[in-house]
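Section 5.1 Outputs to date
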Amino acid sequence: MNNTPFTSTLTSTTETSGLLAGKVAFITGAGRGIGAASARLFAREGARVLLAARTEAQLKAVTEEIRAGGGTADHVLCDLADPVSVRAAVDRSVELYGRLDIAFNNGATAQPPGPMDQLSEADFDRVCAVNFKGPWLAMTAEIAAIRATAKRGAIVNTSSVGSLMGNPELPAYGAAKRAVNSLTASAATTYGPEGIRVNAIAPGTTLTEMLHEWDEESPGIIDQLNSRTPLGRAADPDEIAQAAAWLLSDRASYVTGTVLRVDGGMCA
């Protein structure tokens, strides 16, 4: 066990230069939604970022936007259901920047909304492959990269408030995200002694493309979810990104193994 006291790298210089100054960040699902918002935010906060997703046009657009704003960014194609693709994407961060400090495993896929007896086996397998096995593959590669380079680091997985309650409209999605919560806790317990923190965030209703697609298939679902939310509205993706950035920063240096609800009070 590592009994060396933690020494924060936060100084007046890093506070002015950014929450994630000097860190190399790997982000999955970075072409749109919460992932794209996080890539922009992490770069503004001083990190060098590697964006990963399946759609190159989206990745390229966000990467160019970050560079135009003075940030350091690149992108790599990554299919979370493909172990070789995941390992290669994580390794690319080390090839580009020489190290890996932090990772945000945000990539996910949706399921057709409806009761679980109406979900096809193929859709169930796809949801589990991307939303559960994908984070496991990513964490395994990220931990190896952190160990080999930065030595200490932090990982955040995107869960969902749907993992914390019955989820009749998205049962496989909720179940996979609940499995991610368990995996997060196990990883935090396993790798904490090495100085690698692992947490998850559980977003509530968030105005992403995935949510709008759900609303198209189930008209009125956004209004229904907002009616169950004490703050009475959906989150902007940047609000979720802010929580992830904090958990990945040294300001959360004593936080590990938690699932942080960022849900406007839905689960209060």
